[in-house]
Amino acid sequence: VEERAAAAVAAMAVGDPLERTTEVGPISSAGQYRSVQELLATADRDGTVLTGGAGRADGFDRGYYAKPTVVSRLAPDATLAQEEVFGPVLSIIAADDLDHAVRIANDSEYGLSGAVWAADLPSAAAIAARLRTGQVALNGGRFNVLAPFGGFKKSGVGRELGPHGLDEYGELVAMQLPAGADPAEVADALRALA
Q1: Share above pLDDT 90 across residues of the chain, in percent, rounded to a whole number
Q2: CA-based Rg of the chain, rounded to a whole angstrom?
Q3: What is the tens place of the pLDDT at every residue in 140-159?
Q4: How many Å apart are CA 60 and CA 48, to the nearest integer?
């Protein structure tokens, strides 16, 4: 797995995000670039293996272009494994079995997104249902702008996008009607207010 991941990362095209051939664009800000580099430095001290290396991507002397990096042999409790990176970093953590892998995935203060690869979609969905994360890509599933977006734990303060995102801008009120009241009459009156 490590060798295949390293080869895939080495082949990634880093560049201008407006170019069709670009696979990895710049990090959003100087502060975030520093944060990614600091997290990679902690991983390097923890005895992990960094493939691709930390630092600026080759060929870029301006902007916040970081080298895509694979970090393998990472302990589940390592700083890099426990923080949201928001940079081109793939962490590989070994698990003893599926239950152990789910425990590792859920043993974090964060839960924005995850990905599950399995032999088939029903198996992937069964695993994804056990994860405490706001969205999960199944077997390479792509981001859906109509689906709600948001995370669990420290990664979430509600949902964006889709009807669930719109719900964040309103407050739900349950109106209790007396026995024998006509709900349609009340609904018509409320629609007239809109």
Answers
A1: 42
A2: 22
A3: 888 777 777 777 777 776 66
A4: 26
